[in-house]
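As a warm-up, study this chain.
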Amino acid sequence: MLLLSSAAGQGEAPRAADTRARGRAATARHFEVYFGPGGKHARPTAKFVERSVLIVPADWVEALRARTAGRSDVRWVSRRELIKPGTHSGLAWDAGLALVGDMTNDERMECARILPPASRSAGLPSGMALPKVVRVTASFPIAVTIHHRDPLRDEILVVKSPFPQAPLPPRYVPFGGTAKASAHQLDFLVTSFGATDFEGDAGDLRFTLAAEHLEAFAAWLDGPNGPSDTPLREAREEFGEFGLLTTREISDLYAAQHAKPYRALFGDGPRAHH
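Now compare it with the structure written out below.
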């Protein structure tokens, strides 16, 4: 995907006592952006995503499959299904773009071929006429992945969308959710960029914005004064909501990503990551 260019340092003026901003500046962040067709607002949506990958340890696979078996609210889909969203899989059209961040050129061409005509997998696209006002969302899609020898068979966890699709079948969306900002930061978006029509839970980055401010918003989002929210917070919330992992197990899953000791999914003793 093409990326919006961003220049760190734009946005709210730094404050001398803003230790949060200094600490956040030490952690590089980059949101990708793609444009989707208008939904209930009948406006194209600029979707900013920071994708992360959580590999399920081999000795967790059987137990985690047991926790998701027979459920309709969560399911495992293959990489092949993600590359061809919106077909028999019931996936939202953008699930593949949000979760498969390392597509080959052939896979990117396939995604582009099946996207709706009003969609583009790109930054500010020269070939797409944007209206003066667009919807904006920022989110943390998390690719909870079971690896296979054949990459196309890799399985990724998706969840049922909370928004009814009747009379259409339910659709599935990436594990994870909307990034959050502080009340002070939301006020900044209103006063500096003219953001309006916020929706969702308190602090959610889901709103309407004049298209001329998209570049500046992207710079703020990636910069040291942007939100300090993290995918870990969203993972804890999502795993808990669906009853898949306890707080301890989530910590173990993250430890396994860094080859640190973790415990069996069912059991008490520590187990080294291989």
